[in-house]
Amino acid sequence: MSPSPRIAFLASPAPEAQQALETLTALHGRHAPDEAEVLCALGGDGFMLHTLHRHGSQGKPVYGMKLGTVGFLMNQYRADGLLERIANAEPAKLRPLEMHALTESGATIASLAYNEVSLLRQTRQAAHLRIDLNGQTRLDELICDGVLTATPAGSTAYNFSAHGPILPLGSHTIALTPIAPFRPRRWRGAILRADTEVRFQVLDPYKRPVSVTADSHEVRDVLEVTIRESQDRTVTLLFDPEHNLEERILSEQFVV
């Protein structure tokens, strides 16, 4: 990367992010994402995920600054010293999950998830699910509000709120976590190798409909969902050395 890289600034609609966009483009110029060397996302974690989904296929590093509610994937916002911060930033490579969902209409819908893929009941009726790992049934029936599969980067988000484990970055694992399980009562989920193929079969889709969400992309009335780690897609996030992602994930395990 050059000492003065071309930066594409992308901002959420929040007033603070829009103000920062004006300030930073006045200092560093305005470049389109496909012309830039670095993408700079201004907002919260939701906007960072939006940026990764929209521009991640370009393979360009993303440096985020927090101008939103949640900023686990972001650096602190400062208008000064941005070039030096980017030059000294530590990279964190993330590999998303690939989700393929078969719906009642017969359509197969694919999406990526950098945080998690979650299956949730659509009505007051609990979901009835079967779980297969690499083609072998591991749980004949899970009765629950839902279940999710999370990446290490996403393990501190919805997964942790559902009492799932926090996974170290670079551990090559994913978390399988039930949401309000009724049966089996004592099953608390599993930590799986990242290359595991996870398949959920909806056992009673008409009486107990289920939706699936890959980050923010929702698909309703699913019959079957298959999840595996992507083999050909990675994104690189840049973090200030004093607040790198690996340290943040470790620190989350000691918050009381």
TrEMBL record:
Domain of life from the UniProt record: Bacteria
Top-level enzyme category: transferase
Molecular function, one GO term: NAD binding
Pfam families for this protein: NAD_kinase_C
Keyword 4Fe-4S: no
Catalysis performed (reactions): NAD(+) + ATP = ADP + NADP(+) + H(+)
Any Gene Ontology CC annotation: cytoplasm
UniProt keyword Transferase present: yes
Residues involved in NAD(+) binding: D45, G46, H50, N115, E116, D145, A153, T156, A157, Y158, N159, F160, S161, A180
Active site: D45 (proton acceptor)
Subcellular location: Cytoplasm
EC assignment: 2.7.1.23
Family annotation (InterPro entries): ATP-NAD_kinase_N, ATP-NAD_kinase_PpnK-typ_C, NAD/diacylglycerol_kinase_sf, NADK
Similarity comment: family membership: Belongs to the NAD kinase family.
Task of the protein: Involved in the regulation of the intracellular balance of NAD and NADP, and is a key enzyme in the biosynthesis of NADP. Catalyzes specifically the phosphorylation on 2'-hydroxyl of the adenosine moiety of NAD to yield NADP.
Protein's name in the database: NAD kinase
Protein species of origin: Pseudoxanthomonas indica
Lineage start: Bacteria, Pseudomonadati, Pseudomonadota, Gammaproteobacteria, Lysobacterales
